[in-house]
């Protein structure tokens, strides 16, 4: 980065990184985004694999001309919308307050090194 | 319904005139916005990041405008119209991909970067080698994407304006019109970027997204109304008119084709999986998408903009489903392939058919056709402007300022170099597109996604989440993933050795798949890991800074 960070502030970042509070923030983020990524990827992979190898199942008609493949495809839309909505709710409740608190504490200590200009 | 050909004699001239008028109105409006934006563009932050003042909704629209290319609008509607269900597979991959951007990339990139993808990749690394690598991969991805879009624009112009091989338009035959279109599109994108910077480009994308969504919504409503909102009946008609029967509604007409040869079947199915993976993992590594996250004030708004983008893009792909099946049902497979074998005219043909039936006969058909054709041109312009901006930003901010000037460049020079870069990249893209116009370059979009997924995404994810990652790892993953994807495609049937190849008369292919992702993405991740562990560099202090800043937003630009 072009930002020059004095060594004192490097120490500060390390202290924050090792703090129990930041550990909770990291846990709140990682315990949500990693499993959720694995979940939606597997769900999508299942859909692609079924399209490739389970043609009979995907071709089964459910209502009129609407078959399993179409419903499965539309469910991918539904799951994408739901995951996006659920993540935004989760982030607002569990991630943002922690992130803002730590950010606030860090900024309070910013008096020595001036905030980098944009 | 009667068969409608795109160039129905009566309406051709009306429609052509109207298309051009509407397109000129779009150009006039966007140029006016661009000039206005140029007055607000004073600092580097204004030029690269639009002043970081866009709202979540505005940026969500702009992301949609940047992402929904002509390949998605005309291409996917055409794929669905000709191959039915398999076209839908494409749009699902393009949409699900946004979850990677939402969960793993957008907010952290916004918090820790400034103008380009390389800001995050080089955060805790040695600046010069990593920025060079990031710049190379940014430009490769963007140029591939640009050529595909511009050649596509050239091919579309004769179809959308109805210039037949033996006729002329304004004294130009179809071939000249193609070249003229490529030059016009190229010149406009250069102007948008040089004059308007990120602010101008963003507004162009917002206007385009609005036009595209409105046009697609209108057509979707007409299609659904035609079938009294009975989806099953629409599908049944589409299957029948496509000439493919029930197979039209099932996977397997285009991807994962089952044939008598067991190995051909195996490779075709592998190709389907490979494409599926590249689509989902590529989006969050596309430089012109990543730079969009810098145009909002905070990471929370970056998140909001991705949420809007998911809503807009998802809705749009649902529209294309209705458009594709609607075109199959109301225009018919035979009429579509008669216009364009690849099906790119399915959506405009459907517009004409719907206009004839619902908006007052031939004139209505000509009007709706003209609107959709103008939307298609607007779509191409907005996407190429985004690509040019992302690559010229990287050339100026990463290569010029950090590599050549070693971080000592002043802001004004940097922006000047960015503008010159836009001119150079635009000119190169125009030249390459004219050279490539007679070649089949449709595979370049898929290749751009494959490179983004194989080279950029591993480096971004390792940078943000892996403490041990270092300079060597970043270089290995970028160059390794990039080389793997490009080399595999070069030796694949899309470049040589098949009837639809870029060079159909030659054959040097030995890699059996058209899509390299299933091999090159794991190579990118593996290279990143190997490169990291063989190097001793392990800057835990810089990682502490990156991790704290990316998660909390402290010190964000």
UniProtKB/TrEMBL annotation, chain A:
Keyword Membrane present in the record's keywords: the answer is yes
Transmembrane ranges, per UniProt, are 32-54, 66-87
Q: InterPro entries, from UniProt? A: DUF485
Keyword annotations for this protein, in alphabetical order, are: Membrane, Transmembrane, Transmembrane helix
Q: Could you tell me which PANTHER family the record lists for this protein?
A: INTEGRAL MEMBRANE PROTEIN-RELATED, MEMBRANE PROTEIN
Q: Which organism is it from?
A: Paractinoplanes bogorensis
Q: Which Pfam families match?
A: DUF485 (PF04341)
> What protein name is recorded for this chain?
DUF485 domain-containing protein
Q: Work out whether the entry's keyword set contains Cytoplasm.
A: no
| Coiled-coil segments on the chain, per record | none
From TrEMBL, chain B:
Q: Which branch of life, at top level? A: Bacteria
Q: Return the Pfam families for the record.
A: SSF
Location in or out of the cell: Cell membrane
Keywords from the UniProt entry: Cell membrane, Membrane, Symport, Transmembrane, Transmembrane helix, Transport
Which InterPro entries does the entry mention? Na/Glc_symporter_sf, Na/solute_symporter, Sodium:Solute_Symporter
Task: Quote the PROSITE patterns the UniProt record gives.
Answer: NA_SOLUT_SYMP_3 (PS50283)
The way it spans or sits in the membrane comes to: Multi-pass membrane protein
Protein name in the entry: Cation acetate symporter
Query: What is the organism of origin for this protein?
Result: Paractinoplanes bogorensis
């Amino acid at each position: 980065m072009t930002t020059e960070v004095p060594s004192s502030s490097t120490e500060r970042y390390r202290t924050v990184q090792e703090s129990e509070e930041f550990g909770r923030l990291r846990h709140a983020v990682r315990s949500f985004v990693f499993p959720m990524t694995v979940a939606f990827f597997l769900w999508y992979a299942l859909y692609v694999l079924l399209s490739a190898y389970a043609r009979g199942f995907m071709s089964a008609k459910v209502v009129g001309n609407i078959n399993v493949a179409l419903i499965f495809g539309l469910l991918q839309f539904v799951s994408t919308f739901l995951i996006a909505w659920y993540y935004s709710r989760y982030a607002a409740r569990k991630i943002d307050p922690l992130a803002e608190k730590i950010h606030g504490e860090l900024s309070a200590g910013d008096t020595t090194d001036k905030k980098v200009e944009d | 319904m009667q068969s409608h050909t795109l160039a129905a004699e009566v309406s051709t001239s009306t429609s052509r005139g109207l298309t051009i008028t509407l397109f000129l109105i779009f150009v006039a409006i966007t140029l006016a916005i661009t000039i206005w934006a140029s007055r607000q563009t004073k600092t580097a932050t204004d030029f690269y990041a639009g002043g970081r003042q866009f709202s979540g909704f505005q940026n969500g629209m702009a992301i949609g405008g940047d992402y929904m290319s002509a390949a998605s609008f005309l291409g996917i509607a055409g794929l669905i119209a000709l191959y039915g269900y398999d076209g839908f597979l494409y749009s699902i991959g393009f949409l699900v991909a946004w979850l990677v951007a939402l969960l793993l990339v957008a907010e952290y990139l916004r918090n820790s970067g400034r103008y380009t993808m390389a800001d995050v990749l080089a955060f805790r690394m040695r600046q010069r080698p990593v920025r060079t690598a990031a710049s190379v991969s940014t430009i490769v991805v963007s140029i591939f994407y640009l050529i595909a879009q511009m050649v596509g624009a050239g091919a579309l112009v004769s179809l959308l304006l109805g210039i037949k091989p033996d006729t002329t338009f304004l004294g130009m035959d179809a071939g000249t019109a193609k070249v003229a279109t490529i030059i016009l599109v190229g010149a406009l994108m250069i102007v948008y970027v040089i004059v308007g910077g990120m602010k101008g480009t963003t507004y162009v994308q917002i206007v385009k997204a609005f036009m595209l969504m409105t046009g697609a919504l209108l057509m979707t409503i007409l299609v659904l109304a035609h079938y009294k909102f009975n989806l099953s009946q629409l599908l049944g008609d589409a299957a029948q008119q496509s000439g493919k029967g029930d197979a039209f509604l099932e996977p397997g007409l285009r991807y994962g084709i089952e044939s008598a040869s067991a190995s051909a079947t195996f490779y075709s199915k592998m190709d389907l999986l490979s494409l599926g993976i590249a689509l989902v993992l590529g989006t969050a590594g596309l430089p012109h998408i990543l730079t969009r996250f810098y145009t909002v004030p905070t990471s929370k708004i970056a998140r909001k903009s991705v949420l809007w983008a998911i809503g807009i893009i998802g809705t749009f792909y649902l529209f294309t489903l209705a458009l594709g099946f609607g075109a199959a049902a109301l225009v018919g497979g035979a009429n579509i392939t008669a216009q364009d074998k690849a099906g790119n005219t399915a959506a405009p043909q459907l517009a004409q058919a719907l206009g004839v039936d619902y908006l007052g006969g031939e004139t209505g058909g000509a009007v709706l056709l003209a609107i959709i054709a103008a939307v298609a041109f607007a779509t191409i312009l907005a996407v190429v402007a985004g690509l040019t901006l992302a690559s010229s930003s990287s050339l100026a901010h990463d290569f010029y300022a950090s590599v050549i000037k070693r971080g000592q460049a002043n802001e004004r020079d940097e922006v000047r170099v960015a503008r010159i870069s836009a001119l150079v990249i635009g000119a190169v893209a125009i030249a390459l597109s004219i050279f490539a116009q007679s070649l089949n370059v449709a595979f370049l979009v898929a290749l751009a996604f494959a490179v983004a997924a194989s080279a950029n995404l591993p480096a971004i994810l390792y940078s943000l989440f892996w403490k041990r990652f270092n300079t060597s790892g970043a270089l290995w993953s970028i160059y390794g993933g990039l080389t793997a994807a490009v080399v595999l495609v070069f030796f694949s049937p899309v470049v040589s050795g098949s009837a639809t190849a870029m060079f159909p008369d030659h054959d040097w292919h030995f890699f059996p798949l058209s899509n390299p992702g299933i091999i090159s993405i794991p190579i990118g991740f593996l290279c990143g890991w190997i490169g990291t562990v063989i190097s001793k560099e392990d800057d835990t202090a810089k990682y502490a800074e990156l991790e704290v800043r990316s998660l909390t937003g402290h010190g964000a630009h």
